[in-house]
Amino acid sequence: MMQKIIPGCLLIALALYSTTPARAQSAHTIKLREETGGGASREQAELQALRKDIEKLQSGQVEIQKSLQMIKDLLLGKQPALEDVYISTAGAHALGSPAAKLTIIEFSDYECPYCGNYARDTYSPLIEKYVNTGKVRYILRNFPLVQLHPHAQVAAEAAECAAEQGKYWEMHERLFRSQQALDIKEMSGHAAVLGLDSARFQQCLDSGRVRAKVQADLAEGAKLNVRGTPTFFFGYQQDSGGEKIRAVKLMSGSQPLSAFAEILDDMLRENKDASH
Predict the structure, then answer these.
(1) Which of 49, 62, 112, 187 is 20 to 30 A from 194, alpha carbon to alpha carbon?
(2) 8 Å CB contact between 77 and 46
(3) Per-residue pLDDT at 252 exceeds 80
(4) CA 24 to CA 57: how far, in whole Å?
(5) To which H or E segment does residue 83 belong?
(6) Cα gap 113→34, rounded to integer Å
(7) Structural domain spans, the chain
(8) What is the pTM of this model?
(9) SS3 for 119-132, per residue?
(10) Which residues face 33 on adjacent strands?
């Protein structure tokens, strides 16, 4: 039985999001009151402003209800149904054989404590059991929630700069082991420990040339309705190059290896049965 999903870096972000319509309402009404004079024209303008505020609130409430239902489903351990969800993995960092039938795509935030828990407790045994044995390919996408985690963006960029010197996964693992040292001033030290060319690494970080890649990952996650981190998609390759995945399962939060095993073993069994 699937264990209850721990929402991870999700609830606070949604709470912040849910307060936006109310703030927009008060600011919009006050502005119109300041711009209009007295009498009937003022009353009409205020009525129009109130109607617009109500429409915005109604629209916002619908989104909030959807988000709350999603959180409820996650807490109850329900797996969201995925239909016609295809994910491009072109240019993404991957571990494992390109010939593996199954793929996990993780959207992660280096400063998220739940991502850190997963990285320290589950990631290594998962890689050893499923990726290193050729059963599963593992792909990492950046999803820095900068509203909650101000150092997440620069940490993601540091990992991408390390990738230019062939040390992406080494930096990835080091940053999660050092979540209390993610300030930009700390990055040169991490690079030195990993034996990177410090000048080349710093030039990459200062230039901002990898920022677009991090933002592209973030945009991809938003398009897939990723609401928090870590989020995992489980799917099947759709092409020989492994750059297009049909996702069929979704899981969020810091999970034990048993939760991954339940999904992966079922998918591997289904794939084996389908091939006979």
Answers:
(1) 112
(2) no
(3) yes
(4) 9
(5) none
(6) 45
(7) 11-75, 85-275
(8) 0.73
(9) HHHCHHHHHHHHHC
(10) none
Residue type, 43: E
How far apart are the two ends of the chain, measured CA to CA in Å? 27
The order of strands in the sheet holding 93-95 is 85-88, 244-252, 231-237, 102-108, 136-142, 93-95
Q: What is the CA radius of gyration of the chain?
A: 22
Total count of residues recorded for the chain:
276
CA–CA separation, 252 vs 245, rounded Å? Answer: 18
Chain segment 160-213, per-residue pLDDT in tens: 999 999 999 999 999 999 999 999 999 999 999 999 999 999 999 999 999 999
Q: What is the pLDDT averaged over residues 134-163?
A: 97
Superfamily of domain 85-275: Glutaredoxin (3.40.30.10)
- The per-residue DSSP string of 151-216 comes to THHHHHHHHHHHHTTT-HHHHHHHHHHTTT--SGGGHHHHHHHTT--HHHHHHHHHHTTTHHHHHH
Q: Tell me the C-alpha to C-alpha distance, in Å, between residue 241 and each of 135, 232, 238, 267.
A: 16, 21, 9, 20
Instruction: Return the SS3 of 233.
Output: strand
How many other CB atoms sit within 10 Å of the CB of residue 217?
22
Q: Which long-range contacts (CB under 8 A, 24 or more apart) does 81-86 make?
A: 82/233, 82/247, 82/248, 82/249, 82/250, 85/224, 85/233, 85/235, 85/246, 85/247, 85/248, 86/238, 86/244, 86/245, 86/246, 86/247
Classify 195 in phi/psi space as left (phi over 0), alpha (psi -120 to 50) or beta: left
Amino acid making up residue 92: A
**In this structure, which amino acid lies at residue 221?**
G
